[in-house]
Amino acid sequence: MEANEITETIAVGKKNSPLEVSSRIISGIFTPFMIPFVAFFLLFFFTYLRIMPIQYKLIVLGIVYCFTILMPMLAIYLFQKINGWGIHE
């Protein structure tokens, strides 16, 4: 019990270094949720598929975004709210 209290006080008093901030940004961009979206984005804009009409690309990217990022994150958020969990528990 005492070790947890000490760890919490150390974590609260510690400032974020630039390395930690940049690592959190990179981790936020390249979460497992984002990988399919980034892959489709790169596929559509940096391969021969760039000749496709922009409407088709946006529709596919929107569908990929909804099913791989939006819906899972919404489900996680609702699950946490229903069960009363916080972000650090």
How are the SSEs ordered, and which strands pair?
Elements: H1 2-13, H2 18-29, H3 35-46, H4 54-83
Short description:
Keywords: Membrane, Transmembrane, Transmembrane helix. The protein has 89 residues and is mostly helical.
Describe this structure in words.
The chain crosses the membrane at residues 25-46, 58-79. This protein has 89 residues and is an all-alpha fold. It is 74% helix and 0% strand. It is built from four helices and no strands. Helix 3 runs antiparallel to helix 4 (54-83). It is flat.
Report the C-alpha radius of gyration, rounded.
Answer: 19 Å
Q: What's the assembly state of these chains?
A: single chain
Number of domains: 1
Low-confidence stretches: none
Fraction of helical residues: over 70%
Instruction: Choose one word for the global shape.
Output: flat
Mean pLDDT: 83
Helices and strands, in order, run as HHHH
Keywords: Membrane, Transmembrane, Transmembrane helix
Transmembrane segments: 25-46, 58-79
Keywords:
transmembrane helix, 4 helices, 89 residues, flat, mainly alpha, 0% strand, transmembrane
